[in-house]
């Protein structure tokens, strides 16, 4: 087994995307994103966080040009695990994600600041309850 060397790079892709951060070289010499880094797309999408196998894997934050922000766990470039998605209008969902979808227990904070709790499945949340702070 050969030792893996972590490299720090700044790279601009042919499509205009930019990556700054850690990477490593595979056994066949290909450089892949691995470790922590920031990638900014030409369209204004920015991811800062952990990379593995040249994909967003681990903890990170993805900021969309619309103002939407996801902060939490990623797996293979998708929201997967615990996280918070804040919509451009300020409403937000905090809970579990599975392959970019709301999945399981979570809380949705509406535009009035009211917090609704319950089970979420994709875009459906039946039987939500208002969380009352006493």
Automatic annotation (TrEMBL):
Signal peptide residue numbers: none
PANTHER family: MORN REPEAT-CONTAINING PROTEIN 2
SMART domains linked: MORN
Domain of life: Eukaryota
Keyword list, A-Z: Repeat
Record-linked InterPro entries: MORN (IPR003409), MORN_repeat_protein (IPR052849)
Name the record gives this protein: MORN repeat-containing protein 2
UniProt keyword Repeat, yes or no: yes
């Amino acid at each position: 087994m050969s030792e893996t060397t972590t490299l720090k790079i700044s790279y601009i892709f042919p499509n205009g995307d930019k990556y700054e951060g850690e990477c490593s070289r595979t056994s066949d010499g290909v450089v892949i994103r691995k470790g922590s880094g920031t990638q900014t797309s030409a369209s204004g999408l920015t991811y800062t966080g952990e990379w593995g196998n040249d994909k967003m894997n681990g903890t990170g934050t993805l900021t969309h040009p619309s103002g939407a922000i996801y902060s939490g766990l990623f797996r293979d470039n998708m929201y997967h695990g615990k996280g918070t998605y804040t919509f451009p209008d300020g409403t937000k969902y905090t809970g579990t994600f599975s392959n970019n979808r709301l999945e399981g227990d979570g809380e949705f904070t509406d535009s009035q600041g009211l917090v609704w709790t319950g089970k979420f499945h994709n875009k459906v949340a039946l039987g939500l309850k208002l969380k009352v702070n006493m």
